[in-house]
Design brief:
By secondary structure, the protein is α+β, with helices and mostly antiparallel strands. The protein contains six helices and four strands, in the order αααααββββα. It has a single domain, classed as Nuclear Transport Factor 2, Chain: A (Roll), CATH 3.10.450. Helix content is 50%, strand content 22%. A hairpin with a 6-residue loop joins strand 2 and strand 3.
């Protein structure tokens, strides 16, 4: 009797456990676009899904979120309304792609790396640190 109630309850709990379900990126360009769009929209939970998880990337994303949260409502809206302007998307090898872009609100050029880790395409923000050197 307990098993009949417990197992379905666990399945329901598991189905509701994640607040969002994001689709894995099909390729490097998809991962880059999804990450950038989420960042412009201020959706850092989604951006984190497409991020290669290590301490440096998590620190950089946390800083981006903190900076975004400090912006006024109008400026955040301008980022949300901005289009992504891909400038150069180039495969370095079969596991690394360089993704250079700007957006229609701020014309600053940014380069991120998209890496394939265990079959998943994820954004690696450390390229931003290399560009500042």
């Amino acid at each position: 009797m307990i098993r009949k109630i417990f197992v379905p309850s666990l399945l329901l709990l598991a189905a509701c456990g994640g607040s969002h379900s994001y689709k894995k990126a099909e390729d490097a360009q998809d991962a880059g676009r999804e990450f950038i769009r989420a960042s412009l929209d201020g959706d850092y939970e989604k951006a984190s899904f497409y991020l290669y998880s290590d301490s440096t990337n998590e620190m950089l994303l946390a800083k981006w979120k903190k900076d975004y949260d400090k912006l006024g409502h109008e400026e955040q809206k301008k980022y949300r309304d901005a289009d992504i302007l891909p400038i150069n998307i180039q495969a370095v090898n079969d596991s690394i792609t360089s993704y250079t872009y700007a957006n229609t609100y701020k014309k600053d050029t940014t380069t991120i790396r998209v890496v394939r880790v265990k079959g998943d395409w994820l954004v690696d923000l450390k390229e931003i640190l290399n560009a500042k050197k």
